[in-house]
Write a structure and sequence with these properties.
189 residues; seven-stranded mixed sheet; two-stranded antiparallel sheet; Rossmann fold; alpha/beta
């Protein structure tokens, strides 16, 4: 079964965290949520929701088809500070497997941990992209060569999640899930 690891840290953006988890699950992806914490599987989102994750990040395996990093300023800073997040992302890249990040996470997390290089096209939330070597102003960017999907922020959370689903499965699956959710925008892979 196709699998996803969604990394969640205190301060993660609510809609980006929930949208990706929900849409990938609806699309038949086995989603594992993991807290960036030494001891608690609960995280507090940017707007005060408490989410109980499936596991602690330190207990995640190395065999996910995609690793997703939601944004949010504080959540991204917390992922940036985590050596474990960096190691998981580096292993994912070495395996040639998909990585996805949204909002502040492309610049604050992926770039900081060396995932984005001068061949990787990426986008992110305005004001958080200084560390991204090759920037795009598109709302969602797929870099098929480097197997990285990035998006600008909360307004594009659903489009970001449907794009991940389309890349992992196919556009038809993403469109079926989108139709059931009354999402009417074009989905590409």
């Amino acid at each position: 079964m196709t699998s996803a690891l969604v990394i969640m840290a205190n301060g993660a953006e609510d809609v980006e965290t929930i949208s990706v988890t929900d849409i990938l699950s609806r699309g038949g992806i086995k989603v594992t949520t993991a807290a960036v914490s030494d001891s608690s599987t609960e995280i507090s989102t940017a707007h005060g929701l408490t989410i109980k994750t499936d596991i602690l990040l330190k207990n995640a395996n190395d065999n996910y088809d995609v690793v997703v990093v939601p944004g949010g300023y504080d959540g991204s800073i917390n992922c940036r500070k985590s050596e474990l997040v960096g190691n998981i992302l580096k292993k994912q890249r070495e395996r040639g497997a998909l990585i996805a990040a949204i909002c502040a996470a492309p610049g604050f997390v992926l770039a900081h941990h060396g995932i984005l290089d001068n061949t990787t096209v990426a986008t992110g939330y305005p004001g958080t992209t200084d560390e991204i070597p090759v920037k795009s102003d598109k709302d969602v960017v797929i870099d098929p060569v480097n197997k990285i999907i990035t998006a600008q922020g909360p307004a594009f959370a659903a489009k970001f999640a449907f794009t991940i689903l389309a890349v992992l499965k196919d556009v038809d699956t993403a469109n079926k899930v989108a139709s059931g959710m009354l999402y009417t925008h074009d989905i590409t892979a």
